[in-house]
Amino acid sequence: MFDDFMNPPFNTADVDANGYYQFEQSEVDKIMANGGLLSQKLQNYNERKSQISLANSIYGAFINGRNLLAEAPTGIGKSLAGLIPAVLVSMKYGYKIVISTSTKALQNQYYEKDLPFLHRMFDGKFSYAMMKGRSNYLCRRRFDAFYNDFIAKKKIQFFNTVDQYYRLSEWINSTTTGDLETINFEINPELRNEIVCDADNCDGKDCPYKKECFYNRCRAVAKAANIVLVNTDLFCIDLIVRNTSPASVLPNYDLVIIDEAHTFENIFSKYVGFKVSPYSVKMAVGFATKYAKECLQNASKDDVDTYQRYYDVLLDKEKSIRKYSKLFFSNFQFDTDKETIRLHSYDYNPRVFVYGKRLMNSLKHFANAIHIDTSSDKMYDRGEKAVQKIDEVCAKLEKLVGIEEYEDDFVYWVTYSKKGDP
Question: Residue 390's CB: how many other CB atoms inside 10 A?
């Protein structure tokens, strides 16, 4: 039963007829019962039978390699009931545990209160870390590039952010994490967008700041920790990455606790489904035309005319995309006052299939017309990404237009904006 989970941390001769290891409940009890270690560290502590029962169930699930679904009322002490078994198996068997929460309040409680308390209680015999998504961390390269660009181009919209820039400069010298949520002053949203870590703007191994990168430091600390605290969104993203590529977002782990699990379904659905809208079509096309314009601006005198023709061709094909995008999505207007409705193949107007195919063909012709600049690795990668974005939109449109083929595997919904657009 451990083949797909982990190596058993015990003598298999101790497994009963049902395949469960008969563990000593005193391993949990001696910490959480009256007179135990917890009562020695917490003033006026009084054991709660339901809390100890939950902790024993979690500990038993851990060492038996079993799934456990548990529900408990408010006030039972669920956080310690989960954390203490996690700490025990990390110290005793060397397992790495991920703890996922869906709210910042609970995440902060774990990281700022519960885990530091247990770390002291167990004399620092385990380590813990909190890992957040890339966009929570300041990017040193983008931070410096923003200021240089600001000075060179005098970007008017950022005049009010100069003072924030200098305050951030001081903060960088004192922070160990680069987590922008830990600053004690407000950052202009426009400035934040210019300086956060961003996968699309990451230079990776070529970055001159790779050794000082806050995000890479965070990953290294999380990789070395026994217990890693994450939010459920990041945990879901990691699950998808692991199932679709050889890479991962989180470090490898042995066990996981999903706290606030009632929110897990809705959060996970955001990532395993797909969305397509007039805006997503517009953004994908806009990325490509922006790239083509950049190629034109950087072209040598001998190549300017060639790149101008490439750019003009894309602009011409963009008109066709705008036309069919409007015609296609307008056919999802239904006589309803609901913001979201379920969509079936029999709801489709025949024009959806006609305009959908024309829109996809226009996008494919547009993608084929993108000339990828090979003058540098950076420009080549951006060109590849421009084509990829168009291909991704086409793939989504194919599933939407081909509802009759995919209806058994997908549930379709149409959601309307406040303006009534689908």
Answer: 22
Kindly report each contact of residues 48-56 with a partner whose C-beta sits within 8 Å and lies 24 or more positions away, as own/partner: 48/76, 48/77, 50/76, 51/76, 51/77, 51/78, 51/80, 51/81, 52/28, 52/81, 54/78, 54/81, 54/82, 55/28, 55/80, 55/81, 55/82, 55/84, 55/85, 56/25, 56/28, 56/29
Q: Are 240 and 234 in contact (CB under 8 A)?
A: no
Query: Which amino acid is present at 267?
Result: I
Pick from 101, 103, 201, 182: which is nearest to 136 by CA? Answer: 182
Q: Are 402 and 276 in contact, with CB atoms under 8 Å apart?
A: no
3-state secondary structure string across 303-362 = CHHHHHHHHHHHHHHHHHHHHHHHHHHHCCCCCCCCCEEEECHHHCCHHHHHHHHHHHHH
pTM of the model: 0.66
pLDDT along the chain (422 residues), means of 10: 46 58 72 92 90 92 90 89 95 94 90 96 96 92 80 56 79 91 84 85 86 92 96 94 91 95 86 87 94 91 91 94 93 76 84 93 94 86 93 93 83 75 64
Q: Which helix (H) or strand (E) holds 231?
A: strand 227-231
The set of residues, in sequence order, having a beta carbon less than 8 Å from that of 380 and lying 6+ positions away, is 372, 373, 374
- Closest by Cα among 233, 228, 237 to 256: 228
